[in-house]
Amino acid sequence: MDRRFIIGSLLACIFVACSSQVVPGTETGESGEPDLTGTVNGTRIKDGNNVYGTILDTDGKPIPYIPVSDGIRFSATDLNGVYQFKASPSAAFVFYSLPSGYAIAQDGGTHLPAFYQRIDPSADNRCDFTLRKLTGTTTAFSFAVLGDIHIRDAATAAKFTDSAIRQIGAYFRDTGAAGPVFGVSLGDIINNPKDPDTYGMAQKALGSAEYAAGQYLPFFTVIGNHDHDSRMGDAAKAGTHGYDRGTERRFGEAFGPTCYSFNIGAVHFVALDNYISMKGPTGSNTALASQAETGLTDEIYDWLLKDLACVQDRASKMVVVLQHCHVRGFTGIPHRDDLLSKLSEFHSAYLFSGHAHICESYKYQVLAQGGKPIVERIHGVPMGNFWYSRYNPDGSSAGYYIYKVNGNDFAGWEYRTLHDPDEQMRVYDSRDVYDRESDWSRQYIWTGESLFADGNYVLAHIYHGDEDWEVSFEQGGKSRKMTFANKRIYDYCVNCHLANDKVAGIRTSWKYHWDRSENWWYLKLDQPLTSLTGWKVVAKAKYPLTGETRTYTCDVLTRSLTEE
């Protein structure tokens, strides 16, 4: 990207923020004098601009330089706290980018973030916003992240609320986390929306994470492929972004814009719709995402450029892109390399993805300004196997994430399983052969993997471990380092458990999707693990920013699984 364009975009954004004309003698100031006709808070509204309003603090003082958008076009508040622009014909919302140092506004009914208002692009729209300034530092904070939820009916909505939402609320209540707290749901909140009420069920569930008396965690949302309702699109427009916008309509009614941004401390969060729905109505009312349907449209990428141009001092800040479809493995998708290039302008950069239902971290070869590679984190899910089983496709247990930020990078993070938050791994004996009650031809044995075919190995599946973690096998007063497999491997114990009809209904009502995990460590032993006593696997997670170390241990050999 030409740096002249980058600098020009930034200046253009600042110019818009400062260029609204103030008619002499019409400023309201603190006197409270009424505005003259054609002005808002002392700023003349230009002919043709049909979306406008103010962004003020709770004392009624204007907040200048706040980016405001309808998802396509941009403006920013002037010194009077006024923004204005002409709406795009396809726009459904006007929304602002929350500045650092201000609280996340919440809807009084749903408890979800209230940074937007619905507009009619063919009418006159005045939309005012009030922000509450925070006291104290906001550079240290925590937030929760959910992978795919797939709510399909009242029963799954209740399961989600009673498990993940209840536990997340309890976590923030019990830890008393400092700074702003919030949540993020990374898409596929809905599982093929045949019933329009499903959106309301999901909205109610996400808005019910109470972490203090009368205080609820505001959950930001991302749209996923299953959140699109293809019946709402115009089949005649299939293959256009206009059709895609039609399929987003019901999601927007429940959760608002699908591309937006907000700032907490020194972190710029930007949510993107990176699923391009190009199919007409289908039997399931959705289209599965593939490489051909993943990426950023030109329109969304153009919006992203304008949004990032409004972030000053990027080299000293962190950026976190919230998206549904993962980028890893999709090398030819629209604007993939452009996106990575833009993110490299920040001190540190992360892609947060869902979609794959697995726990995985991937380091790109593109470096951010702080010298570290851009990292994509693909998130495990709270639903396990679509609420039939508590095991994810890669063998990890269903769960959610807690991230802790300090300044412009992560101070730490953890994956907390719903069954037992302290359960972070399972340990296996490579010589084990699992119960093959079913007629499936698949071989459920570790020795089928070349790494483990020549002896006795202890295997540790650490659900969302990182290759930089130190993992060791301790026994008899000795500690031996385990090797990171650096290879994606099936969790054969979980595969066998699911294939053998041990989970009611899976074989008869749904074909389970297996996937591999890269989070494996191994060590060759002199004798089978089953013959040893007093052993344990110890995993130490290190977070360089703070020097914090979190230790996980497991001293139990897993040979079969249950759903209890």
Task: Chart the SSEs and their pairings.
Elements: H1 3-18, E1 39-40, E2 43-44, E3 51-57, E4 67-69, E5 74-76, E6 82-85, E7 93-96, E8 116-118, E9 125-126, E10 129-131, E11 140-146, H2 154-175, E12 181-185, H3 197-206, E13 210-212, E14 215-216, E15 219-221, H4 241-247, H5 249-255, E16 260-264, E17 267-271, H6 298-309, E18 318-322, H7 336-343, E19 348-353, E20 360-367, E21 373-378, E22 399-406, E23 409-417, E24 425-429, E25 456-462, E26 470-475, E27 478-481, E28 483-484, H8 492-499, H9 506-509, E29 520-525, E30 535-543, E31 548-554
Parallel strand pairs: 3-9, 3-10, 11-12, 12-15, 17-18, 18-19, 19-21
Antiparallel strand pairs: 1-2, 3-6, 4-5, 4-7, 7-8, 11-22, 13-14, 16-17, 20-21, 22-23, 24-25, 25-29, 26-27, 26-30, 28-29, 30-31
Give a nutshell description of this structure:
Helix content is 17%, strand content 27%.
Report on this structure:
The protein is of the alpha+beta class and 564 residues long. It folds into three domains: 12-107 and 117-131, Immunoglobulin-like (Sandwich), CATH 2.60.40; 140-383, Metallo-dependent phosphatases (Purple Acid Phosphatase, chain A, domain 2, 4-Layer Sandwich), CATH 3.60.21.10; 425-554, no CATH class. It is 17% helix and 27% strand. It has helices at 3-18, 154-175, 197-206, 241-247, 249-255, 298-309, 336-343, 492-499, 506-509; strands at 39-40, 43-44, 51-57, 67-69, 74-76, 82-85, 93-96, 116-118, 125-126, 129-131, 140-146, 181-185, 210-212, 215-216, 219-221, 260-264, 267-271, 318-322, 348-353, 360-367, 373-378, 399-406, 409-417, 425-429, 456-462, 470-475, 478-481, 483-484, 520-525, 535-543, 548-554. The strands form eight sheets. It has a six-stranded mixed beta sheet. Strand 16 and strand 17 (267-271) form a beta hairpin. Helix 1 (3-18) packs across helix 6 (298-309) and helix 2 packs parallel to helix 3 (197-206). Mean pLDDT is 86; it is low at 1-12, 14-37 and 283-291.
